[in-house]
Specification:
- The chain is α/β, with parallel strands linked by helices and 442 residues long.
- It has helices at residues 13-24, 36-43, 54-64, 104-113, 133-141, 160-165, 177-185, 199-230, 234-242, 263-276, 282-307, 337-347, 377-381, 401-407, 422-428; strands at 5-9, 28-33, 67-71, 78-79, 82-83, 86-89, 122-125, 148-150, 170-173, 194-197, 318-322, 351-355, 371-373, 386-389, 412-415, 431-433.
- The strands form four sheets. The chain has a six-stranded parallel sheet, with helices on both faces. Strands 13-12-11-14-15-16 form a six-stranded parallel sheet. Strands 4-5 form a two-stranded antiparallel sheet.
- Helix 8 (199-230) runs parallel beside helix 11 (282-307) and helix 14 (401-407) crosses helix 15 (422-428).
- The chain is elongated and about 75 Å long.
- The chain starts with a strand and ends in a 9-residue tail after the last strand.
């Protein structure tokens, strides 16, 4: 493998992980971000992302001189070892008006760096973008000597470094075979299967993969409800189907709904792409509708646990929430199903107090409005009429549940993640309400 001079534009979640990991593979990487304050914090070792192994990897790259951090994309194109041979765009593409991806940051980055790219440099779009973005980027560039390549990322928050180092596949799409092969070669040491295709197919792969995962999650959430109605145990059912190699065990855990920075955005984007092609993608729309219904169903479970009726009033009921982030191992609140359920509980009149290991009291995210965030699970349990587990933090399993039972007004747990052992809760004095599971009462 030849070491390449690479510039990564964007030092956020995807960009910093990509830059640090490529440097660890032996490339010379300059990572640039428009946020000068962020760059200064990263240079000072103040890691801004809660991501295992990433701080050490950044430090190693900086110490070895294979990774550098600069403010401003254009400034990163000329490195001490020469002009960048590959430029990778890792800028945000959030949901914009009407559910369409907002490409403002991507367009701004292309316009900034376009005139400064060396002839023959490959411009790689790693940001998640709608199908058909590659031709738009080529048009914005206005250059025939800079090929554009689509190279979607498949990094999960909390395991991003591991996912980069052990990918299921590398997807590279371009109308230029040479450019696609040059980008694929960046990852050759990883030994992963490589899919070389056209840009449109590569762009669609990301949306198609995430939408499929969303379908699987919506399916298992609906299955859990069916189990409750017929007296089956969803854990046994999913184990039974998960041993089928065509199905697999992954993404078969019921929960309060799927969320985060990726699945909601990408399922909506796939619908937008389908609508633009005059195709009604009904199964994806059904998955989204099922996900919305699942969040309402969690509130109904809380109503039932507290009042004995799915239509009972939660007005002025104090409810303790365990977990706020969209999943364990991250401090990310974006599109968190926990917060979606919390919002519905607030609408029902409940008073909310919450504890999350990654969310400090006093945090001012707008999504936390109306929630009293406390530092401990004990504080979240004091004088509540129910505790609701909304994020699968493993440390919740080892809480002092008998002590928590003594703090509550009503010792009830609604476990929307099936995280806890119902027998442990029962012995602690709690009544447990999991998803789709049979629970002993004596």
């Amino acid at each position: 493998m030849f070491a390449r001079r690479i510039t990564v534009v964007g030092a956020g979640y995807v960009g910093l992980t990509t830059g640090a990991c490529l440097a660890a593979l032996g490339h010379w990487v300059t990572c640039a971000d428009a946020d000068a304050a962020l760059v200064a914090r990263l240079r000072a070792g103040e890691e801004a992302l809660r991501e295992p192994d990433l701080p050490a990897l950044v430090d190693e790259g900086l110490s070895a001189g294979r990774l550098s951090l600069v403010a401003g994309a254009a400034a990163a194109l000329s490195t001490p070892r020469g002009a960048a041979e590959v430029v990778i765009l890792c800028v945000p593409t959030p949901v914009g008006a009407g559910g369409v991806a907002d490409l403002t940051a991507l367009q701004a980055a292309v316009e900034e760096i376009g005139p400064h790219l060396a002839p023959g440099c490959v411009l790689v779009v790693k940001s998640t973008v709608p199908v058909g973005t590659a031709p738009r980027v080529r048009e914005l560039l206005g250059r025939d000597d800079v090929p554009v390549v689509s190279n979607p990322e498949f990094l999960r928050e909390g395991t991003a470094v591991h996912d980069f180092r052990h990918p299921d596949r590398i997807v590279v799409g371009s109308d230029s075979q040479d450019a696609a092969e040059r980008v694929a070669a960046l990852y050759s040491r990883l030994g992963a299967p490589t899919v070389l295709t056209d840009a449109a197919s590569a762009e669609l792969v990301k949306y198609a993969a995430n939408a499929f995962l969303a379908l699987k999650l919506s399916y298992v959430n609906a299955l859990a409800e069916l189990c409750e109605r017929v007296g089956a145990d969803v854990g046994d059912v999913t184990e039974g189907i998960g041993h089928d190699k065509r199905i697999g065990q992954a993404f078969l855990s019921p929960g309060p709904g799927w969320g985060g920075a990726t699945l909601p955005k990408d399922t909506q984007a796939l619908l937008e792409a389908a609508d633009a092609a005059d195709f009604e993608f009904r199964i994806v729309r059904a998955a989204i509708d099922t996900n919305t219904r699942q969040r309402r169903r969690m509130v109904d479970k809380v109503r039932l646990a507290v009042t004995g009726s799915r239509t009972g009033s939660l007005s002025r009921c104090r409810i303790g929430l365990l977990g706020l982030t969209f999943k364990a191992g991250t401090d990310d609140l974006r599109d968190s199903p926990a917060l979606a359920v919390a919002a519905l509980l607030r609408q029902a009149g409940a008073e909310l107090v919450a504890h999350d290991p990654a969310v400090a009291p006093g945090r001012t995210d707008p999504e936390l409005a109306g929630i009293e965030v406390v530092a401990t699970a004990e504080a979240a349990a004091r004088d509540v009429e129910a505790l609701v587990v909304l994020t699968e933090w493993p440390q919740f399993r080892t809480l002092d549940w008998p002590a928590l039972a003594g703090l509550t007004v009503r010792p009830v747990v609604v476990d929307t993640r099936n995280l806890l052992d119902p027998d442990v809760l029962r012995r602690a004095g709690f009544t447990c309400h999991p998803l789709g599971r049979r629970v002993r009462t004596t």
